[in-house]
């Protein structure tokens, strides 16, 4: 009682030779199918190199192309030869030239001897298969595929589309229920011979000849007719990436493969010398457990596929540049934008830094330069504070900053004097928390030492910019968390809005705010607005600001002290 | 894209190939070992001038990574670079006295060499101060990468330029022959790169790093380009257009994913800022053979008097490729 290996080989023949020799020397007969596309000289020297082994045979050569019937035909011929030539073989193991046994062959023989009637073949109904390429699962069995997917992709796709459009369907032969699975199986003599000697084999072969990727469905479907003793899993460890191509193992996977406890792994890079020398050295038994356990390898490869498909959120780099509206996030972490707060309050950034424990910057997009926290000239990731560099690509500047400071929340001030190019980026970004006190920029003008005519001009300009900005923030496409108050409303109830903003930034911060930031002296601000109005400008973003200076004062006095609790 | 624009690009590619063909006359063969090139070998194409001191480590680095043959264009070195390379069995050398500037900074020469000798080979086009780093490069050689790229149906591989620099003045530690330049130039900027898309060639345009930060802070548009596509499964109809920043046909420039995922990519560590750079600057100011009237050298020269330190508090010290991966400068993609 033993296991025989059928090997399908098309490249790296010297590695196939090593592996075949390894099997043969451990008492397992081998039948090798070499792709007809391999050059004759190469083939002959390959045959020659194994001529000293009597239990290694070569089957009739087919020209093999991925996704076509030729691979099934090759395995059929080789399997027939195996069953005929080696009568003591009980299990037939289908493997490829780039498969490598990870555990001693002895252990595989014992494992199979303990399960003499079990067929190891992954066989899943089409409804339950998540891993098909090009969205073809059930349609593999009902459409025709006369064109090569690799060489004539356009024809392939168009013909599929045509058949779909006209609702064309092939008849599946009676009694067959389509199943799919890994093409690397291990079947018992009883089951395999039943498949190969079936009187209806001609019908089935004729049908599967035009099925798409029949090597993943031929045995997987037919085995259901002849055996009830099916373990629906492959003994070969083989992982596929998102394009349906097998992941390749290298020398640095040695420890992973050792701990996997799998019998055979595919596919091994043909120059992975350390893997071949370790696993083909029969003196070493690296495996401990009895049952295969490829969990860790699974995780690594599924992470790789995820990185390829989703990528790291908020990262823009040489090989990831999501187009507009693509990718699931615009930035990598939540951040807060405060507009008007630093105009209204004295030392607002210091107060905020204490209240939330985040990194608080000044006006990052200010016209004079980038105000990084602590007035640093250079910040995380070696970002420069030069306005020209920032304005060269303001959106990139912001996304880089957020990416560079992963793990630390960023807050910054913003206003109508700043570069407005980031408007749509932040408005559409779910990571942005934007709080606006509209019209507060006027406080800076009010306190400035400019001529009133220039103040009036500047006020008109800033009001226009902020109005446009607010329009963006109020558009229906906004994904950011936006809060907007007019200056007058905000002053009415200072603490509540601040409390809600800060609660949102740091949920851990359960303490209630005890101290509001100190508001600037607004005595005469109402009159200032009135003066602007008198000059023919209409300052509307501040809300209804009380004009009388005495109300101004009483309000201010009443608000003291700032302790509320 | 409109058909005439596509056709214009085709003409441009043909023109580049024609210029490469014309430039063949400027190259005289000094050592021809190209008969040693075997099917499937990874090749390296390099243009150099007076790089004698850097060559020993350069050769060692790339031989260990699995480059099988080196194709050098020597632009009239007089420091013994050519003599040093002569005799190595895996090196072929062409010599030229023609102008570097007039050959579009060596592009015509490289295109010609690549067209003639690199067809159907994975070809790495780098300068002597550029060191290719890719995912798993500490455990896997370049052929592992190229086999995987072949397997995945990918023809070109991106590796952006990262400027490396020492801490302190750049001429403080003299570079010794055979030394790993990254022992001196250990530092780099980890996150100040600016990306935009070039719609015509559909490549990414990357600028930034210490050169933009220090020498081009008032003129970022003219800051040096850092995007590079140095590793290509070459076909004789391909052509580099500007250095190795972009190629035609445009499909080769699609090294970035636009649907949200990450493609695999590497990095070229640019060990330009060693003490040798100061000498080069002096020389280039005389020769004016480099890009855009050597404005980069000029900018550096103007700054050298006051503050030649590229290092800053936020500079990152180089450890390995995994660090670059985590920082988001390169990606493993779906290679695992």
UniProtKB/TrEMBL annotation, chain A:
It comes from the Bacteria. Keywords: Disulfide bond, Endoplasmic reticulum, Glycoprotein, Glycosyltransferase, Golgi apparatus, Membrane, Metal-binding, Signal-anchor, Transferase, Transmembrane, Transmembrane helix. Residues 266-565 form the DUF5927 domain. It is a single-pass type II membrane protein. Residues 546-565 are annotated as: Disordered. One of its GO terms (cellular component) is membrane. Pfam families: Branch, DUF5927. One of its GO terms (molecular function) is protein xylosyltransferase activity. InterPro entries: DUF5927, Glyco_trans_14, XYLT. It is found in: Endoplasmic reticulum membrane; Golgi apparatus membrane. Residues 556-565 have a biased composition (Basic residues). This is Peptide O-xylosyltransferase.
From TrEMBL, chain B:
Keywords: Transferase. It comes from the Bacteria. One of its GO terms (molecular function) is transferase activity. It holds the Pfam family Glyco_tranf_2_4. This is Glycosyl transferase family 2. It comes from Pacificibacter maritimus.
